[in-house]
Write the structure tokens for this entry.
Amino acid sequence: MDDWIDYYDSTHTIYVSKLHRDVHFRVIANDILAYVPSPEAVVLDYSCGEALFAAQVAAACQKLVLAEPAPGVRGRLTARFGPNPKIVVRSLDELAQLPDQSTDLAVMISVAQYMTAAELEGAFALMRRILKPGGRLVLGDILRPEVGAATDVMALLKLAVKNGFLTDALWGLARTALSDYWQLRQSIGLQRYSEADMLARLKTAGFEAKLAPKNVGYNPARMTFLATPRS
């Protein structure tokens, strides 16, 4: 995961424009909001990225923990949300300090594809420990083995048409094809999981899990899983 962290901490081209970036994080925030169980909830966003609309999520809960491994991104989060008493920014290592059964909702959106099997297992163990009985893990944007880059491109173009940045998307795709992103994707790869495989991994980690009716985010070809700790 370290190479991907370095990439996201650089001046990357994953977003084709500021509008694309804003739309992406707005969609994610709105989808997370649908899972916040109550205004008293403690919510963890694991590897949250820029989380531009975290204030809206924080307004719907008691406390929002933004956990981000990339130091530069984490610094921007601290600067952006430092004045908000409902939001705390942490590194992934600092999550070990969270008390047992202290969290109502944990979300991992578009993260698993960048993690090794051991890293994913460790994240699941953390979630299992910190989630309250009846708490929920939302594991979103999981890549299927049979779905390739062309499907991701089509999902982006549909989002661009809907939100008015198609020209930027076309230019951005051309730039990205020559960027470090594709070099990393080809050299390291992205982890892909079948529905059965991910359900089995979650069961082994101590969760009862099911496939959600729709994916979190804008790519319907990917999967989201809903998991609760087994008692």
The beta strands are 42-46, 63-67, 87-90, 103-109, 131-142, 207-211, 223-229. The CA atoms of residues 56 and 171 lie 31 Å apart.
